[in-house]
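Anyone opening a protein record will find just a pair of labelled lines. A complete record is shown below as an example.
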Amino acid sequence: MQFTINRSAFIKALNDVSRAISSRTTIPILTNIKLVLNDEELVLTGSNADISIETTIPQSDTSTQLVITTPGGITLPATFFINIVKRLPNDSMTLTVEGLRATITSGASSFTINGQDVQNYPQLPEMDDVQSLSVSAAQLVDIISQTKISASTQESRPILTGIHLELTGNSVKAVTTDSHRLSQRIVHLTGTDADVDANVIIPAKSFNELQALLEGQDRVEIKFSTNQAVFDLGHTTFYSRLLEGNYPETDRLIPTESTTQITIEASSLLGAIDRASLLSHESRNNVVQLSLTSGNAVLTGTSQEVGQVTEELNATSVEGDDLEISFNPDYVRDALRVFNGKKVAIKFTSNLRPFTLTPEGETDNKQLQLITPVRTF
C-alpha cells in the first residue's frame, strides 16, 4: 500500500474520523484508525462501537493531491499517527505500508510505526428496514443545540442520555430530560417531501460529535434502521447506535396554564444570573431566588460564607400573582443561551412546580425549556 497526499487535506479527514475514536474501549483495535486504499479513493474509518465515522478522499478531488500508487489497507494507532502527520515538515506526505509496518515520509523526515491487520477491524453496521429523509443541516444543528443541554450525563438511566426524536411526515419533535429540566424543539423540515414515521433515541454524545461535522454542510441524508441511525454528509458518513427502551411521556410534564409570568430579554436575565451565581456557586446548594412582587422582579444570590447579591431586573412585564421561587442558576443559564438574545416569557404556576421558558408570544411549545425549582425549606 502506498499513496501521497496533501497534508492539510489529510489532517482534516483524520480529525473528522478521530471524533469517533476513544482511548477508553474494551476493543483494543478501536484505538486505531483504519485506512483502506483502492484504485480510486482513500477511505478512513474511526469507531468506538457506539459511533463510527467513515470519510472518503477521492483521487478525483484535485485539491487533496491524492496520488495512489499501490492499493491496500492497515490500521494504525490513531493518536500517535495523527500527531506525527500534524508535525511533518512539508505540505505533502507519503505513506508506504509493507506487511504491518507503515512508513510516513515528508521532506527529510521519516517515521516507521507498527499497525494491525485491517481484517481484524470491526465491520460497519449493516442497515436493514431503512427509512430515510433529507434534512437541512442548519435545521439539524438547531435541533441538536437547543435540546442537548437537558440530556442526562448519568448512566444510571441510559435512556435519558439520549435525544428522543419523533418524526411524523416532515415534522420532527426532539425532547431531552434529565428529570430536573426538559428541552423541546419541534421543527417543520424544509426542502423534503419525505413521509417518515420514526420514533428513535440517539445518544446525546453522538449528536455532540455530529454537530461538529455539520459545519459548512447544506443538506444531510438521514437513514434509520432497527438499531442504527446513519447521517450521510457527502464524503463523510456518521453512524450512531440507537438507545433501546421507551422514552418517558414528557408532554404531561409541561404545564398548560400559569399564574405568574415575566417577559424579559434573554441576554439581560443571563447577565443577572451570571452575577448572582458568583455568590450561589460559593454556597453548598447553588441556588438563586427570584421574587416577583407588585410588578417588580428581583434576583438574589446568597452565600453564608461570602455574602449576598441583589439585582432588580429590567423586565418588559411582570404579570399575575406574587411569587418567590428558587432554582439552579446553571440550568436557567443553559436554557437562556438557547434563545439567542430573544425576549423570553417565563411562566410559573407555583414555587414548587416546574416553570417554562419560551420565546415571547409563542403558544405552541415548539421551542421550550422547562426547569424544576429547588425546595429551600
